[in-house]
Design the sequence.
């Protein structure tokens, strides 16, 4: 029998699928059903605290839930340890595909149990503002361990590839970007009416409520814009409510910003269909799927000029400078972008999920 048709791959390092907030989660939801359709046996081991269903499969992917600690400094590493054990002793997986640098700390454990390891590096998470010194040290160690012990490494952008070449002399990584599905344009405006906005009269952003997304900066910049003809809508929420997310929600309320909560499906598609401008003001990203989604809807976009955002090669007018004057820089850029009536065109060829699935199965077959 063809070996490619029988490879069994367990996926660790993600909270799970479907419709769970997070870039890695969106990545896995799009990628692994496509890989399963090619004849591979895929098992995604989910974190029980994040699942709101009783599914055991999703589009050909086996879903297996295990308990996890709901503590941001421990949950990823503890869950990955348990997931690797389950991958070996329950599913007898050939390959463990580990996502993100924290979970990659357990790559040697998977190798010790006799499984091959594929590690996808989604970004240097130790740069995220939410982590303290100890967590940053562990994340750096996870990056180093993953790059040293994984049989194959996948990176989602050139800046990440440059990091692992420079720091760990890992020269053979596979550059496979994040992708984006075909847009679903929603002409029905009922959700817009429910949200309290009019077509082309709102600025849109989406993501988790964590400091590095800089939604607090976006709210401050919008408040100083003095454009009462536009509203600001932010879709998303915190995984675990904390001091930052509470302050962000209070600031949004005080400045008339609309928070939709975490949304997917037609509601999200409707907001992407009718937005005037999409903004991503992050200080840290891997290769942001939210930006790719906005581009797929042919929206005008405005992004911070960090390396991950510049990886998509937008025109200079689509970026604002990220420095200590970020609020002022963003406010000025918002004003300029709202005056620009041109219709953008983006080449999305590289971000096709079917192509990405083909590239990823090539990595599996290699090992």
Sequence:
């Amino acid at each position: 029998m063809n070996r490619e048709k029988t490879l069994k791959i367990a996926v660790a390092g993600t909270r799970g699928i479907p419709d769970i907030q997070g870039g890695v989660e969106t990545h896995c939801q799009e990628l692994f059903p496509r890989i399963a359709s090619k004849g591979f046996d895929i098992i995604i081991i989910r974190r029980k605290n994040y699942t709101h269903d009783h599914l055991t499969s999703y589009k050909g992917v086996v879903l297996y839930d295990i308990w996890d600690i709901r503590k941001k400094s421990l949950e990823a590493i503890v869950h990955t340890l348990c997931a690797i054990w389950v991958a070996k002793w329950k599913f007898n997986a050939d390959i463990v595909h580990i996502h993100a640098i924290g979970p990659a700390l357990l790559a040697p454990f998977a190798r010790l149990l006799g499984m091959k390891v594929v590690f996808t590096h989604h970004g240097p998470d130790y740069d995220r503002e939410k982590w303290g010194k100890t967590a940053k040290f562990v994340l750096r160690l996870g990056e180093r361990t993953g790059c040293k012990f994984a049989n194959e490494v996948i990176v989602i952008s050139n800046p990440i590839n440059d990091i692992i070449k420079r720091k760990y002399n890992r020269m053979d990584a596979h550059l496979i970007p994040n992708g984006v599905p075909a847009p679903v344009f929603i002409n029905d405006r009922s959700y817009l009416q429910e949200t309290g906005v009019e077509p082309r009269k709102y600025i849109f952003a989406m993501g988790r409520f964590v400091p590095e997304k800089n939604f607090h900066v976006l709210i401050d910049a919008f408040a100083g814009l003095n454009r009462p003809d536009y509203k600001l809508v932010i879709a998303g929420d915190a995984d675990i409510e904390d001091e930052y997310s509470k302050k962000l929600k209070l600031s949004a309320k005080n400045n008339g910003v609309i928070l939709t909560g975490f949304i997917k499906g037609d509601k999200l598609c409707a907001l992407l269909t009718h937005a005037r401008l999409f903004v991503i003001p992050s200080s840290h990203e891997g290769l942001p799927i939210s930006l790719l989604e906005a581009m797929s809807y042919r929206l005008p976009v405005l992004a911070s000029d960090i390396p991950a955002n510049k990886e998509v090669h937008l025109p200079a007018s689509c970026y604002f400078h990220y420095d200590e004057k970020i609020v002022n820089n963003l406010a000025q850029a918002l004003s300029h972008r709202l005056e620009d009536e041109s219709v953008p065109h983006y080449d999305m060829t590289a971000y096709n999920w079917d192509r990405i699935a083909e590239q990823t199965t090539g990595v599996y077959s290699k090992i």
About this structure: The chain has a mean pLDDT of 94. Residues 133-149 form the longest helix (17 residues). The radius of gyration is 20 Å.
